[in-house]
Amino acid sequence: MIYMVEMALIATDRRVEWDAWYLSHMHKLLSIPGIRATQRFESLSESASPFVALHQVDGPEVFTSDAYRAKAGPGGTGEWRELMNNWYRNVFGGIDATPDVPMDGALIVVEDGASAGLVPLTWMHPVGLDKSSERRAIGVAASLDDVRGLIGRKGVRVCKPLTPRLVEPNV
Question: Helix, strand or coil for residue 37?
Answer without folding.
Answer: strand
